[in-house]
Amino acid sequence: MPHYETVLKKLNMRKIFLFVICASFISSISLAQQNNAADKNKIIKEQAGRPDVPGDLFMEVGFNMLQDNNEWESKFWGSKIFNMYYQYDYNLGDSKLSIHPGLGISTQKYAMDTSTLAYLPDANGDFVVQTIRLDSVFQNANDFVKSKIATTYLEIPLELRWRSLKYDPKRSLKIAVGGKIGLLIDSKTKVKYEEFGEKKITKQKEDFGISKFRYSVYGRIGYGNAYLFYNYNLSTLFEKNEGPNNTEMTPMMFGFALSLF
């Protein structure tokens, strides 16, 4: 009997041991699944620390250049851009691709070295946009600080975006391509100069033959919330036959973009 009881005790101990091992294993799997689900929900909810607002708010800063510009000498460092866009998210099923329509404001400054734009009569007496030297307009000025053309467009972007980690945008590589259409809402020239020791600023608000509508394509690549972008206009800066000496010029932009949320 003692031997039989010892065997029973050993068998019971083995059963208890196996039960504990199985229970621990099942509990570990269940806890891991719960943690993974919780982490996934947390990432989706927090969207890498961003507020609970759908879509993205982009801020872009950078520079612009003019292709086929034979009218004036440009200043690169003064030719700046500042854009703000809101874009909504539409995920394409379970893939890492998404579509992003949006709305935004795009502002450009084209810095000119010694020139500005003005409406002047041509040989037929018609007033047309012409490029003129600053010293021919401001004859008493002894120093010209800056001369710029400024434009503001209301734009509608649409882009296709890919990200390496679908549920973790903060640690994702992102690549986007898209297009924009824009409506001109403001255009003007600005000249800052010094005359008789006094600093003066002259602004002239006209359309200057600048394109009312514009079309462009762009690309963006980045990690997390930071991007580099390049934008190429499919339309010209000036309307056909309305720019100075019928020039048209093609703008391009590049710079740094940041997703604010």
Rg on CA atoms, Å? 31 Å
- Which strand order do you get reading across the main beta sheet? 1-2-4-7-8-10-11-12
Indicate how many domains the architecture comprises: 2
* Low-pLDDT sequence parts: 1-11, 28-32, 35-39, 42-48
* Overall geometry: elongated
Tell me briefly what this model is:
19% of the residues lie in helices and 52% in strands. With 261 residues, the protein is an alpha+beta fold.
Walk me through the structure:
With 261 residues, this protein is α+β, with helices and mostly antiparallel strands. It has two domains: 1-46; 49-259, Porin, CATH 2.40.160. It has helices spanning 2-46, 134-137, and strands at residues 56-67, 80-87, 90-91, 97-112, 115-121, 127-133, 141-163, 173-195, 198-205, 213-223, 226-233, 250-259.
